[in-house]
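Fold this sequence, please.
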Amino acid sequence: MIAHVQGKVSYRSPAYVVVDCGGVGYGIQISFNTYGLISEAEQVKLLTYLSIKEDSHTLYGFAEENERQLFLHLISVSGVGANTARVILSSLKVQEIVKAILDGNWALLKTIKGIGPKTAQRIVIDLQDKMKKMGELDTVAGLQEKNPAVEEALAALQMLGFSKAEAEKGLTKVRQQNPDIGVEQLVKLTLKIL
């Protein structure tokens, strides 16, 4: 399986990009959410999922791991294919979809083009327990837009020997009290509570 593709964007549209990776152009289907995160970037790294069918091999790309995980959950639901999952991810933010599933709000999912009441209810029923068991309420609801300061601080804390989970927990606590803090201060304050 192709886990990710990294390279220069040679073509881009809101639903599709071509990433030049070592002279090979990978055509990748993306959601509007991912497009919003990479719309200005010349170099990108997209996490991927390869859908293999009798008549096609289609690569789907995601700017963030939480979006890829939600995509994988959605396609595990009977009646929801990869293109339908991409439409869902293009219509709502990841946090909104997870919240709708956890709250049993299938009416919100039904408003998405191509999702009928039965499919919306099936998504909620099939995924509600999975989301709760995996603790995605905490991890996904707590995620903010990609923040370079947080990513740098996380990398620094991991280099100091802290696990990713404990470093993320500490960073989240510090950022709740100091949302606009720089990398250096973020690391210092997080070290005090770890």
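The longest helix spans residues 117-133. The CA atoms of residues 32 and 136 lie 22 Å apart.
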